[in-house]
Amino acid sequence: MYLTYFNGQWTEGNVPLYGAMDHSLWLGSSVFDGARAMHGKLPDLRPHLERVISSADKLGLRCPLSVDEMEALVREGVAKFPADAELYIRPLVFGTDGFLIPVAEASQFALTLFDAPLPPFAGFSACLSTLLRPQASMAPTDAKASALYANSTRAMREAKARGFDQAIMLDADGNVAEFAASNLFIVAADGAVVTPKLNGTFLAGITRARVIALLASEGVTVEERTVGKEELMTAREIFSTGNYGKVTPCTRYEDRTLEAGPVARRARELYLAFTETS
Ligand code: PMP
């Protein structure tokens, strides 16, 4: 089921939101975020709502609702689903008026909730993309802007065409940035748990930050540093973090087979335990 809140009411189905003249349709002024409900628990909901407000600001839009208002709507919407539902929660802010530059005050808000079971802890395959994450001077990389996904989905299409599930993208300096739509961690050859240091080219994932904190609470320090692409060939584990799948292991990288390893497994368990407390 899809359920959307727009202009003061909840409606089921694929609710039309845009007009032919709307800025977001014409020039891509839309931002979104993705959170999850898992049997009524809402892990890190507020950071996701805070981020949609800041993403909107970065694009010259203005989210018309506060975090508290959005949270109340999310809770109202989640209560309309069965208690054990696993849902994707997608707040969206988009521009309507404006010729070239969007009129911030005319930004619109919509919130869509839909069934999306948490993927199992099963391995996925990934290849190295020929496409790069743009630098902060080339695209609104500090926002979760829909426009960025035009390139990320090109990378995914390229990966699919090569027979892989996912793409790993490098930054413009040739270092590992992230998967096309999730953050990347490795367990390096020396056993260190490592994730690329934030450098403004890829999303500062909320799940990434949560997993770093959860592993730290177990005494496992995650090194945030530059990761060279050659390290993907020697890593003991490669795994992804992101709202959709939370923690999932990459079990094939190019022609290498990897195990769904103990660090990824522990990070997933810790995340699920954290969910119960949220
Ligand atoms: N990078 C990209 C490009 C993404 O789309 C996502 C999913 N939101 C992530 C990373 C992971 O971010 P988060 O943990 O905040 O969902």
How is the topology of this model organized?
Elements: E1 2-6, E2 9-12, H1 23-27, E3 30-32, E4 35-38, H2 45-58, H3 67-78, E5 86-94, E6 108-115, E7 124-132, H4 149-161, E8 166-170, E9 176-179, E10 183-187, E11 193-196, H5 206-217, E12 222-225, E13 237-242, E14 246-253, E15 256-257, H6 262-277
Parallel strand pairs: 7-8, 7-14, 11-12
Antiparallel strand pairs: 1-2, 1-6, 3-5, 4-5, 5-6, 8-9, 10-11, 10-13, 13-14, 14-15
Helix pairs in contact: 2-3, 5-6
This protein binds 4'-deoxy-4'-aminopyridoxal-5'-phosphate.
4'-deoxy-4'-aminopyridoxal-5'-phosphate (PMP) is lined by residues 34, 152, 178, 181-183, 202-203, 205-208, 241-243.
Reported by name, the CATH topology of the largest domain is D-amino Acid Aminotransferase, Chain A, domain 2
What is the tally of helical segments? 6
- C-alpha Rg (nearest Å): 19 Å
Q: CATH H-level name of the largest domain... which superfamily?
A: D-amino Acid Aminotransferase, subunit A, domain 2
The tally of strands reads 15
Structural class: alpha+beta
Low-confidence region ranges: none
Share in helix:
25-40%
Order of helices and strands: EEHEEHHEEEHEEEEHEEEEH
* Molecular shape: globular
CATH level 1 name of the largest domain: Alpha Beta
Detailed description of the structure:
With 278 residues, this protein is an alpha+beta fold. The chain folds into 2 domains: 2-115, Aminotransferase class 4, branched-chain amino acid transferase, N-terminal domain (D-amino Acid Aminotransferase, Chain A, domain 1, 2-Layer Sandwich), CATH 3.30.470.10; 124-143 and 150-275, D-amino Acid Aminotransferase, subunit A, domain 2 (D-amino Acid Aminotransferase, Chain A, domain 2), CATH 3.20.10. Helix content is 26%, strand content 29%. α2 packs across α3 (67-78) and α5 (206-217) packs across α6 (262-277). The chain is globular. It starts with a strand and ends with a helix. The model has no long low-confidence stretch (mean pLDDT 97). 4'-deoxy-4'-aminopyridoxal-5'-phosphate is lined by residues 34, 152, 178, 181-183, 202-203, 205-208, 241-243. The site of 4'-deoxy-4'-aminopyridoxal-5'-phosphate (PMP) has 15 residues, from α5 and β13.
